[in-house]
Design brief:
The protein has three helices and nine strands. It is an alpha+beta fold. Pfam families: Glyoxalase.
C-alpha cells in the first residue's frame, strides 16, 4: 500500500530525466495536461537551479522526475526514449483533449481500437510519449 507522505512503497514507478534543465516546466505541464498533483515539494540540487528529485501523482499512480545531471552519469538523457507512459483513464477523449490543449502533440490520433479501448498517443514538450486509453463506451 502506498503512503502518500512517503511515496510509492510497492510496484513500479516511472522516473523521468528531463533534459535542458526543464523539470520545473515539465511539472507545470503535467499538472495542466494530466491533472498531476505534487506528492512533495521538489528537492533542488546544491546549485539551487536544477531539480534533483520531484514526485507527482497522476490518476492514482506515481511519477518521479529530475533534471539531467550528466556529471553523475557521464551523458545526457535522451530527449525521447523507447518508453511509452500509459494512462488508463475514465474518459480517454477528455484526457486526450486536455493534454493536446496544454501543448502535447498528437503522435497517434485517438480512436476506437481492436482490443476494445478508445486509445491515442501524445508527445509532451519534453519528448516523452504518453498513451491514453479507456474502454469503448457502448
Amino acid at each position: 500500500m502506498d503512503n502518500p507522505d512517503q511515496g510509492p512503497t510497492a510496484g513500479l514507478t516511472p522516473h523521468l530525466t528531463i533534459t535542458g534543465n526543464r523539470a520545473k516546466d515539465a511539472i507545470a505541464f503535467y499538472e495542466k495536461a494530466f491533472g498531476a498533483e505534487r506528492a512533495m515539494d521538489p528537492y533542488l540540487a546544491d546549485d539551487g537551479k536544477r531539480i534533483m528529485h520531484a514526485h507527482l501523482k497522476i490518476n492514482g499512480g506515481h511519477l518521479m522526475l529530475n533534471d539531467d545531471f550528466p556529471e553523475y552519469r557521464g551523458s545526457a538523457a535522451p530527449e525521447a526514449g523507447p518508453v511509452t507512459l500509459h494512462l488508463q483513464v475514465d474518459d480517454a477523449d477528455a484526457w486526450f483533449a486536455r493534454a493536446t490543449g496544454a501543448g502535447a502533440t498528437v503522435a497517434m490520433p485517438i480512436g476506437d481500437q481492436f482490443w476494445g479501448d478508445r486509445y491515442g498517443q501524445v508527445t509532451d514538450p519534453f519528448g516523452q510519449t504518453w498513451s491514453i486509453g479507456s474502454p469503448i463506451r457502448k
